[in-house]
Amino acid sequence: MDNKPFDSINGDFRGKDIISLDQFAQKDIKILFSHVPKMREIALKAMPSKIIAGKIVVILFYEPSSRTFGSFSTAIKQIGGQTVEILNPQQFSSVVKGETFEDTIRVFEAYSDAIIIRHPETGSAQKAADIARFVPIINAGDGIGEHPTQALADLYSIKEKFKTLHNLHVVFFGELAHYRSVNSLAKLLAMFEGIRMSFISPAKVGLNPNIRQYLQNKKVKIRELHNLDEVIEDTDVLYVSRVKKEFMSEALYKKIQGKYFVDKNVLSKMKAKSIIMHPLPRVGEILPEVDNDPRAIYLRSQIRNGTYVRMALIALVLGGKI
Ligand code: ASP
Ligand code: CP
Q1: Is any ligand 1 atom within 6 A of the Cβ of residue 242?
Q2: Which amino acid residue places its CA nearest to atom 4 of ligand 2?
Q3: What would the pLDDT profile of 96-122 be if each residue is shown by its tens digit?
Q4: Could you confirm whether 35 is annotated as catalytic?
């Protein structure tokens, strides 16, 4: 392959890096989502399909993960590909011996058809994309930057429930300053007419200023508040977030952790036709007493859709015949 393309999706996913939601337009989301029901069917069948048979994907995760790792690994196998999984390369690869990020990427691209990367440094996926010359890079979370595949899957879950992506009120609740999936989902939602977004957070950990600017430029109606009660009765999607301990000082963590949560009292104020989401893991910000409410989708469809949407995305990026 010659130099790979690195740009907007513009209706064609083949060979492209997936770094940011900035690359997507509504038509790309429509194409991606159109393949998800078929992916679901494949996943529920006993035998995997052969959509990307013969392809090998490297999953290179410098940060811990349950869902993103688990669902990418599952997704690739469900559509007939194989994986090379390098978890914690800081401990289990030649990074230990001092190998540079650049060399690591160059080496793993030699073995694979795509690299899926998670890394604590913001901008690292873009950096990997600049280094890799032949294979696409998929961002599985870069520091406090973006988490595009989480947001695409979340958007799919919202659409599945409401049958539309227009005129919804989405409320982001919790620690927002370090939350890459909030950044990505807010960017995605901004594409749809009539969307309102409220950001409810403790002081000092409100919305990332770049995202605020992004939304303001797009003329999206946003509110930034500290008290969930001000919006809860008028909420369609309540998107809850964890305190990202790993990105802040111990002092700030102690100040925030345990100070906000969703319990039965919050539930009782929500509309019958609303949903509660969380990218997970949760660490006390949604109490288990909420889990069995039909509006709580975080341990149900939100998880499963993560796999189906990733199956569709990989199939498209690797040019598989769907
Ligand atoms: N799992 C998501 C992420 O990696 C959210 C979280 O960790 O709280 O960004
Ligand atoms: N939602 C999410 O990214 O979960 P993991 O950090 O467990 O991958």
Answers
A1: yes
A2: 67
A3: 999 999 999 999 999 999 999 999 999
A4: no
pLDDT-derived band at 3 (thresholds 50, 70, 90) equals very low
Which residues, other chains included, contact 281 with Cβ-Cβ below 8 Å and sequence gap of 6+?
66, 242
Active site residue 97: yes
Per the annotation, the verdict on 67 as an active-site residue is yes
Q: Please enumerate in sequence order all residues whose Cβ is within 8 A of that of 294, keeping only pairs 6 or more positions apart, or say none.
A: none
Q: Which atom of ligand 2 lies at the shortest distance from residue 280's CA?
A: 1
Say if pTM beats, i.e. exceeds, 0.90. yes
Pocket flag, ligand 2, residue 66 (CB < 6 Å): yes
- Which of 35, 55, 68, 169 is catalytic? The answer is 68
- Both structure tokens of 194: 């009539």
Question: Is 256 in contact with 139 (CB distance < 8 Å)?
Answer: no
Residue 17 has pLDDT above 60, yes or no: yes
Report how far residue 207's alpha carbon sits from residue 212's, in angstroms, rounded to the nearest whole number. Answer: 7
- Give yes or no for a cis peptide into 281 (omega within 30° of 0): yes
What gap in Å lies between CA 42 and CA 101, rounded to an integer?
36
Residue 216 contacts residue 185 (beta carbons within 8 Å): no
- The answer to whether the CB of 150 is under 6 A from ligand 2 is yes
CA gap 190, 173 in Å, rounded: 17
* For the chain, the helix, strand and coil percentages under 3-state DSSP, each to the nearest 5: 40, 15, 40
Q: Is the peptide bond before 136 cis (omega within 30 degrees of 0)?
A: no
